[in-house]
Structures are given as C-alpha cells and as structure tokens.
Amino acid sequence: MPATPAPPAAGISGAGATAPATHWAPDFGALRRQDPELAGVLLAELDRQTTTLQLIAGENFTSRAVLAALGSPLANKYAEGYPGHRHHAGCELVDLAERLAIERAAELFGAAHVNVQPYSGSSAVLAAYAALLVPGDTILAMALPHGGHLTHGSEANFSGRWFDIVGYGVDRHTGLIDYDAVRVLAREHRPKAIICGSIAYPRHIDYAAFREIADDIDAYLIADAAHTLGLVAGGAAPSPVPYADVVCATTHKTLRGPRGGIVLCGAELAQRIDRAVFPFSQGGPHMHSIAAKAAAFAEAATPEFAAYTHQVTENARALAEALAAEGLRVCTGGTDTHLITADVSPFGVTGLQARGRCAAAGIVVDKYTLPYDDEPCSTGSGIRIGTAAVTSQGMGTAEMPQVAALIGRALHEERGLAPLVAELVGGFPPYPTPT
Q1: What is the pLDDT of residue 294?
Q2: Which of 8, 279, 328, 333 would be 323's cystine partner, CB 3.0–4.6 Å?
Q3: Which residues contact 56 (CB under 8 A, 6 or more apart)?
Q4: Catalytic residue positions?
C-alpha cells in the first residue's frame, strides 16, 4: 500500500529523497549519549511544536531538506567575503552554495541583485540603512503602535537612536493606511527614505502608491517584506521588487526557510548593499544557513509551494471570519495575507491575558497592541495570529472554524481544552514518521 503523501513542510522530492544516509548525517543518538540534558530540551521542544497549535504569525515549519542543510558540514566553514573573493581558503564549494542561493532568489523574485548573507531580517534592514543613509537622516516609517517593526524607529533599536524617525499610521476607523496622510507627512518632513512594510498589517500594501510618494520628494523607498515575501514567491501577494529601491525580508516566515535575512535591489545599488552587509555590519556568513536558504528558494519555485501560499491566505480569511463569529473584533474586517489581528476586549481580557488563556489550552498566539490602543504596550488589547505554520502541517479551511472555536473557548477560560487541541493537531504532524 503506498504511503500517504506528506504535507508540504515535510516532503522531500527528487533523487535525493531515496539517497542513502551519509557519514555526516545528523546523529541525534550521539547528542543523547553526550548531552542527555540538552537532548531532552530538544525533544521537549519538538513535542511542544507537534502537540500545540502554532499560530505565531512569524513562525513556520521548514522542510526536512532545509533542516538537513542547516545540519550540514557547511556549518564548519569560515567564508568572509563573497563568492570568488573570500578572505579564507577552501571556499570553492561554499561559493557554489551561495551562488545557488543568489541565482535562485534572483529568478524567484525578479531581482537584479540579491544578498543572502544577512543573519536576520533586522540585519537586512540595517544593511539597507547603512547603504543609503547616514546617521541623523530622516526616515518616514510605520509607527510602532500601528504595526511598525523595531527597526522602523524604536528608541531601543539602532533605527531610533541613529535616525530621525517620523511615523505614519492607519486610519482610526478602518485600520487601513491613509496614503494621502502619508504623502502629507512626506512633503512636510522630506525624509531621505520611506519604509513600507509592517509586522501586523493584514492587508496588501500599495507599493505603487508608496513609489509615487517617494518620487514626489526624491526619497529612497525601502520595502520591509519580512512577513509577506513567501506569499510573493507563490503569487499570493503583490511584489515590492518592481517599486522599491531595496527590499529587505526574512527567509523563515511565509518563505518557510531557515532563520535569516535577504536583501534584494537593483544593479545600481548592488555594491553599496554588499559593502553594507560585509564588511560594515557582519563578519563571516553562516554558510549552512545560506545553503538552507538555497534549498528553500528551490522549494518556493515549485507549483506545490504556490498552492501552499494560496492555501495560507484562504485559511487566514476563513479563520478571520470564524474568529469574528466567536466574538473577536477582527481588525480591518479581515485579511489579505497570512496574519490576523483581533481585539479581545469583548471577552473582558487584555491581549496578555488572552495569550495566557490560550497558552493554557495549548494554543500559541502573540499579544498585540492595537492602533489607538487604550492598554499599555506591555498588555495590549489584541492578539496577532498567522496561518503559515498550520497550513504547512496540512490544515485547510475545514479546520479553521475548529481553531477559532478553540480560541473562543480558551478566552472564556474553559478548562480541559488542551487534549482537544492535541487531538486536532495530532492529525497534522509537521514531520510525519517516514513509512
């Protein structure tokens, strides 16, 4: 009897799927023998991920192929510099891995130049700032209380300390970006760069409108597509590449690769971006992570991944509708992407309390401070959730009402929900046992 096909995150296709194990294959048994304490932590985390509902908007499950690259001997190699121009010997083969990642990403996103070395999304944004700006320059970015990222102006972050940040927000009533208001701020403050992108905006961003605003004041346009670049790869979200001077993103959210960053830009900025990554802000790149990025880009170029990204957004729309039926106030009335933000105050709880009640039921969500929130940032009035991970597990629109009902029951502080959650996710293991 043929084995049941694995869900998207777990499958490995091609000739390598049946290749024999190599002498360097990760050996968990060795870790157990050498460091049982740490092995126990890893096993407990695997159990947590496979028995609870993973609804963090910025998390996902990588494929086994990506995990294999992360555990490869490339982790041993120092490779400061770029392919063909390294500071260490013995880089001929890791050069091939990095070139594969660059070529695959360039083709996938239609970018003239790609840098795959950033350690994280924040590192990618830092590189963009370093390439285009100097300390003291003015930046127009989405305000943090409205969904902006730490690198968009937090006083605790390099962005807020080194630059003069002007924040734009969303309309109080619709929750949508008011592009006319953004244009007014741009003309008033004349920023050197405008940042478009958010960690909590559930609707598609009008990149063409931002391009017009940037051109109107002769500013750079930097798109932070950390959350949506995977959806872009699958055709489930508009691409910022044709409009932005620089696109910064992560590779581990909807793109379903390893934790890391990426920068896309035009040929005219290629040298400035590369120098801003190395040697300005980073040293030796993580070659095992770059190889894993290459694997993820190859996966993202497949029809299966495109179908996955469209399922992610369909699941998000279905979940948003079901959450509204449970009594949550869904921001912007729904979502175009993988993420949902919702007001939980109708349940008489803060976002922090909602996160705790969900955690007790085995449901993992983020607290969220809503735009114009009366609650302090430490508690917030909302939650932020995403459907990328549960979709990787194989869940579809049929499961979203069940997920919403469990969240609603958890917010009502109903007891005994954890076994029901475990039963639901038990039917969708992220890494099924090979048969």
Answers
A1: 98
A2: 328
A3: 364, 365, 366, 385, 386, 389
A4: 78, 80, 224, 250, 253, 259
